[in-house]
């Protein structure tokens, strides 16, 4: 029997129309005319016997039936796309090693390490997914992840790589060449704060023994990438993991305000979900990393690497 299926062109038009809630923008997205999109949607509605969109003045609005249909169709289109890509590249996404990396850690540390792995094992394909440091390994599909924490993740085996060490930095034009000469000099600068880790300044001040009794005053930014960009541009002083600022310190675009490292109480870990420890790709990566992490100093923060010379 012939399958009861709408045309793929109609589903493409429906998908684009839902995403843009505009036939005109959907047409621009697909490189067709607006009347072509309208005709495809009309054909789909006739085929299904449903009204998928309604007009609310100049706006396009999904009906309740249209929203329910799209919820299912979008998943099927995503799956169809995945299967098609897998066919082109000759293997399935399920056969690839899935590696989790918080975006800043990936940019500031992970790229060189993964490049070395790709060179050593060109037949082991991997895909990197952004993840949070509070990753739930019980529900995650990742095979392994590099995350910051205290080493306690439910359902995962963790390996400490190195402790997180905090430094205070600022733009060269903002600081004297020798850095700040006294703790009280902090009063003269805005202190850029990380809204996702609001206790970092207090942690550094107390741990480093800095006698600063004023309010911690300054702009609040959501992540280290933004904080470093604003620090480079002279917005104020920032407390950041030394791991994330090594390039700026080496190039001179940022300078240490104090010659003091202070651990945050957390570390960077390589974590393996216990249910995937026996995977062939996981075993390949684990064995390679165990050897290379100890041998290659560029995989370590400068302070750790210096201790291994």
UniProtKB/TrEMBL annotation:
This protein's record includes keyword Transcription: yes
InterPro entries: LysR-type_TF_proteobact-type (IPR058163), LysR_HTH_N (IPR000847), LysR_subst-bd (IPR005119), WH-like_DNA-bd_sf (IPR036388), WH_DNA-bd_sf (IPR036390)
Keywords: DNA-binding, Transcription, Transcription regulation
Domain HTH lysR-type, first and last residues per copy: 6-63
Superkingdom as given in the UniProt entry: Bacteria
Biological process, per Gene Ontology: DNA-templated transcription
Transcription as UniProt keyword: yes
GO MF, one annotated term: sequence-specific DNA binding
Pfam families assigned: HTH_1, LysR_substrate
Family membership: Belongs to the LysR transcriptional regulatory family.
Protein name from the UniProt record: DNA-binding transcriptional LysR family regulator
Taxonomic lineage of the native organism: Bacteria, Pseudomonadati, Pseudomonadota, Alphaproteobacteria, Hyphomicrobiales
């Amino acid at each position: 029997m012939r399958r009861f299926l709408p045309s793929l062109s109609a589903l493409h038009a429906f998908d684009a129309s839902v995403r843009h809630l505009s036939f005109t923008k959907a047409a621009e997205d697909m490189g067709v005319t607006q009347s072509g999109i309208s005709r495809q949607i009309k054909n789909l509605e006739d085929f299904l016997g449903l009204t998928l969109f309604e007009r609310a003045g100049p706006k396009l609005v999904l009906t309740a039936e249209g929203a329910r249909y799209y919820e299912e169709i979008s998943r099927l289109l995503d799956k169809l796309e995945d299967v098609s890509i897998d066919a082109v590249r000759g293997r399935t996404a399920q056969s690839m090693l899935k590696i989790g990396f918080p975006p800043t850690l990936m940019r500031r540390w992970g790229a060189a390490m993964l490049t070395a792995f790709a060179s050593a094992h060109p037949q082991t394909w991997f895909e990197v997914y952004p993840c949070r440091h509070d990753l739930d390994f019980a529900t995650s599909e990742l095979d392994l992840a590099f995350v910051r924490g205290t080493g306690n993740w439910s359902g995962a085996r963790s390996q400490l790589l190195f402790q997180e060490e905090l430094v205070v930095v600022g733009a060269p034009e903002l600081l004297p060449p020798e850095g700040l000469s006294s703790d009280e000099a902090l009063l003269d600068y805005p202190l850029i704060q990380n809204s996702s880790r609001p206790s970092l300044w207090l942690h550094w001040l107390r741990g480093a023994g800095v006698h600063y009794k004023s309010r911690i005053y300054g702009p609040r930014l959501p992540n280290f990438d933004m904080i470093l960009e604003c620090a480079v541009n002279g917005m104020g002083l920032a407390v950041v993991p030394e791991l994330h600022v090594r390039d700026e310190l080496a190039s001179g675009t940022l300078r240490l305000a104090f010659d003091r490292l202070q651990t945050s109480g957390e570390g960077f870990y390589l974590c393996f979900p216990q249910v995937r420890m026996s995977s062939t790709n996981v075993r390949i990566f684990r064995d390679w990393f165990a050897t290379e992490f100890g041998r290659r100093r560029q995989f370590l923060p400068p302070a750790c690497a210096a201790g291994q010379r």
